[in-house]
Amino acid sequence: MIEARNLHKRFGKKVVAVEDVSFVAEDGIITGLLGPNGAGKTTTMRMLYTLVRPDRGTALVDGVDVVQRPEDARRGLGVLPDARGLYPRLTAREHARYYGELHGLSGAVLDKRVDELLDLLDMREIADRRTEGFSQGERVKVAMARALVHGPRNVLLDEPTNGLDVMSTRAVRNLLRRLKDEGRCVVFSSHVMQEVAALCDRIVVVAHGRVVADGTPDALRERTGKDSLEEAFVATIGTDQGLMQ
Ligand SMILES: Nc1ncnc2c1ncn2[C@@H]1O[C@H](COP(=O)(O)OP(=O)(O)OP(=O)(O)O)[C@@H](O)[C@H]1O
């Protein structure tokens, strides 16, 4: 379970990236952070996965405070960051193996886990190529395998289907549903409402660094009195700018 409690983050004097974000992402469901460009989604994610220190507020991963015990929090997290940052000289398989080793896996257990992920993400053909020159979609898959290799209880993904074609998007969606069915806590961010609508059990709408709505897709529709989720989002945020594909 992941909890954000009154998170705040400023950059310099002028930029207020996150101004009081709170939500709880439960286990066994997919929670979507939806908001237009610049809403504060990535900054919120970065605070949750210990890359950025909040100015105020608390973030907990399975009850562990990410500022006070960052190492323990990270052990329980699998992260797909916005900058996918791969090592060009390592193959796709080596990326997954390396991160598995960093998390203490080895031998047959690690081999099996890596093979499983390469299959699930439909990566067999690229598994043993160096990642230098990989397409956007191939890079996302490698980063995804790397994020999940240690079987984390909580998974944070920043715009996971960005740049993916239809087949790869389907593979990623199926994988997220599988993680949910396994009882894991899955949080992902997106500015594409169709993406969120297709996957999420719970939607946290963020705009201008604040949570402006939080609930199931049905509850959001009811609250705004709109039939389509798309109209409900636009009504909630007050604009459709930065929210379309
Ligand atoms: N390191 C930084 N230094 C200065 N400003 C920053 C920094 N990181 C984020 N910001 C600013 O904070 C605000 C929120 O950015 P953030 O990346 O969190 O938004 P986002 O919702 O993820 O947007 P997008 O959908 O475009 O990725 C933006 O105005 C951004 O320019």
TrEMBL record:
Give a single Pfam family match: ABC_tran
What InterPro entries does its record include?
AAA+_ATPase, ABC_transporter-like_ATP-bd, ABC_transporter-like_CS, ABC_transporter_ATP-binding, P-loop_NTPase
**What Gene3D superfamilies does UniProt report for this protein, alphabetically?**
P-loop containing nucleotide triphosphate hydrolases
Could you tell me which PROSITE patterns the record lists for this protein?
ABC_TRANSPORTER_1 (PS00211), ABC_TRANSPORTER_2 (PS50893)
Matches recorded under SUPFAM superfamilies = P-loop containing nucleoside triphosphate hydrolases (SSF52540)
Q: Which UniProt keywords apply?
A: ATP-binding, Nodulation, Nucleotide-binding, Transport
Example GO molecular function: ATP hydrolysis activity
- Ranges of residues in domain ABC transporter: 2-233
| Similarity-based family | Belongs to the ABC transporter superfamily.
Please state what the protein is called.
ABC-type Na+ transport system, ATPase component
Organism classification: Bacteria, Pseudomonadati, Myxococcota, Myxococcia, Myxococcales
